[in-house]
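Ticket reopened. Same input as before:
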Amino acid sequence: MAPLSDPGTVDPATVGGAAVEAATLTESAADGARTAGTVTFDLAATTVRALNSELHAPSATSYEVLRPQGAHAIAAGVHAPLTVDIRGHAGYYCAGMNDGATVTVHGSVGTGVAENMMSGVVRVRGDASQSAGATGHGGLLVIEGSASMRCGISMKGIDIVVGGDIGPMSAFMAQAGRLVVCGDAGDGLGDSIYEARIYVRGAAGGLGADCVEKELRPEHAAELAELLTAAGIEPTGAYAPTRFRRYGSARRLYHFATHNSAAY
Amino acid sequence: MTGYPPDTASLGLRESHTFDRATIAGIQRAAATGIYDVRGGGAKRRLPHFDDLLFLGASMSRYPLEGYRERCATDVVLGDRNARYPLHLAIPVTIAGMSFGALSAQAKEALGRGASEVGTSTTTGDGGMTPEERGQSKHLVYQYLPSRYGMNPTDLRKADAIEVVLGQGAKPGGGGMLLGQKISGRVAQMRTLPAGIDQRSACRHPDWTGPDDLAIKILELREITDWEKPIYVKIGASRTYYDVKLAVASGADVVVVDGMQGGTAATQDVFIEHVGIPTLAAIPQAVQALRELGLHRKVQLIVSGGIRTGADVAKAMALGADAVAIGTAALIALGDNDPRHADEYAGIGSAAGFYDDYQDGRDPAGITTQDPELAARLDPAEGGRRLANYLRVLTMEAQTIARACGKSHVRNLEPEDLVALTIEAAAMARVPLAGTSWIPGQGGAP
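Engineering reply: fixed in the latest deploy. New output:
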């Protein structure tokens, strides 16, 4: 790869027999000077492969992605404490399996943003499609707009804060972590939930099997305030923790029993 | 069998084929307990299988190779379509995915040791990768399952290949349930769930639906692992022709087809016995799909479900598989169903040769358990040696047959080398009924 101080062209690589377009590292500033160490990838001129290859073996700590054009797997598999700003809309699995990076999408994202995240922060300025934060083990996913169905499905420790609404079947089989919804939640919320905790400010369309409303005690209000604050939302007034309801597992389906068969 | 006279026929007693003793016992058990039977293993019913095929050894019209002298190669390369580092295996017999959780850590380590000793691969399972398994496995395939229990990108990058699991032969369309008695502290921690609860494994992936999505998921997996690792797609045999085509269209480098004789750690008996198709019926469908795509031998086909002998290996390969995978047979090689545990099997209501309560966690052989005392009975080094021995036998048996058919590589076996003993097997395997040129459903004179 060309040295970052010398904007140039990476030789065309062959990956899996398919020729990959030449990847160009461009400077972020109009005058061609590198700006405060930020490296910019223009996905109209280079490939996701070139971007991810650099992010997996980074030679800088700050990256900017221009014209993402809804491409899939942008910044997937990053495992270093990088800062990545994506200027536009991203496709499926943006920041998938993120482990330590701070990724901000200045637009909306497709299915599976930050799926299986281990650590770090992923922030979506717009809306998110299905399965946002699916199976995430850790880190914080903030969706400033709304998220579609299956938000937080099978979450395993991730924290998710959604500024707007979430779609149906969210937090399905959610194992651990916290899901905060500042708007409404769709039908079937928390179906077959394990130990994850859900906070909803608006209305829940309907609760899934074994998901029940629970008392919001002071310790829950405290963690909710922390999560809102971390997401950039002031936990006061209309967003005060007392305006939220808490949902979690009744733990009635933890052991298979025939008398529960109507619940499955 | 208890309670039945030893020689029923001499007493004039006639057993019903419809209500045989097993069926009667099943009804009685259901009436007594109010719950269906959950067990391990694969389909037990009589099915058209590799036993219903025979090889046509060379004579005048074909020229054999000299046994013990002339070379008959067994190596196989898996996943060289897109991956920078395809798997190069010394033998075409791999170890199928079985989870830590379903199996003890010692058993997983033994599988890795045995596979590595003979230069083949082993596979993780639901619940993630254990250090014991990674440490002892030269070639380790990392399963990517709907539950994503224990799934993390660090282990993904440590793997030698990735297997996206859509289903398994014992239960196509089904998820799983690991019962609480097997959820030890370590298993629970790896899966991020409370210890001791019955643990459901999802039947659908949480972040993709259908082949178009899967293509993008596979792209993501390639991106995360920098296009280094082969991507397998595993399907339970049902609509195999279409599923293989869609798996390939989604980008699979290797397709794994698991027939209904393939085992499970815990599934309803009614599911195991009544859902899916036999391995024998699945292989020609898969091969047809690959041929029509022009990708047979380019996208490799691994077949599993009821592989027991080198003859089975050779027959699967003659039908077009590039390799096979074994699960149940590997556990037996480690010591499962060993008669030396006869008294203990009897003590838990089973018998050596019949034990299938893998879900129960009380395995006297210490393989399908998380009980520390039982698990300690299996010495991973000794288990690995036994498995390696068994894998060598499978390989030598397959070579013996291949040489007899004049093949210098087991992969060169072909359907033309086979005939069927039954009309059913001939129709499913698409080879002629022995002594005829008749392939039912394919035309030709009887």
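The CA atoms of residues 154 and 180 of chain B lie 28 Å apart. The interface with chain A takes residues 34-35, 81-84, 147-148, 151-154, 156, 177, 179-180, 191-194, 197-198, 200, 202, 206-208, 213, 216-217, 219-220, 222-227 of chain B (CB under 8 Å). Please confirm and we'll close it.
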